[in-house]
What does this fold into?
Amino acid sequence: MRLDRLSRIENYIMQQEHVSLENLAEKFQLSVNTARRDVIELEKRGCILRIRGGAMAKGPIRSPEEIDTRHQKNADAKRVIGSLAAKLVQPGQTIFIDAGSTTRNIVPHLNKTPDITIITSSVNVLVEATRLPGITLIVLGGEYSATSDSFHSYTSISDMENFNFDLAFLGTTGLSIDGGLTTATFMEAAIKATAMRRAKETVVVADQSKFGIRSTSKFANLSEASTIVSDHAPSKEITAYCQNGGIQLITAEADSML
It folds into this structure.
């Protein structure tokens, strides 16, 4: 299936940083012309950059060590966000938890919420969720992506269409009024967009460093979020936009005042 192949090629380019068309053709058993067409398609999606005779990753590559560093960045804020977000989950609900350094912090705070079903593609969410008593855990499969520390494929996205989520907890690389909700790769965006479509409500978890940022792939307009949970309130413009659009804002600042 071409869509799955594109996902594998995107992931490979992101890992290798730059590759030749001949390398792609050999790796994925394609003709050079087919490899060239796939690279052109990925560039149109904003995933990679074409270079003479090949392709290169559009942004910096994250090694496993860099993923750990990303998890540690703003760690205290992310733990607070996870605690606040977990309070939204009710017993018996089915929830989707996205891959990300903020979303993983939701899971430990669900230890006293009984009879929930967690669906995820995230390795870290999987590991954390196995420690929770009395839950149902469903893991979406696919090829492992080091850039997001998760499994993904178009088959798993198709499988998501068979689920109904009460809540979808999504991370985001960028959040802005004009750029919407954005992330690093086309595949990550496709997973997030599908989760939003299958959920009654979408909860975006983002520390203050994500406000006003635009990343490569847009997965939704800001107006499509039901709730935003953060450590600090966003700018006056974003706050006003949320208030006018009926988007709930939950922040650590406001919670500490209660």
Q: What stands out?
A: The radius of gyration is 19 Å. Confidence is low (pLDDT under 50) at residues 60-67. The chain has two domains: 2-57, 67-256. The longest helix spans residues 2-16.
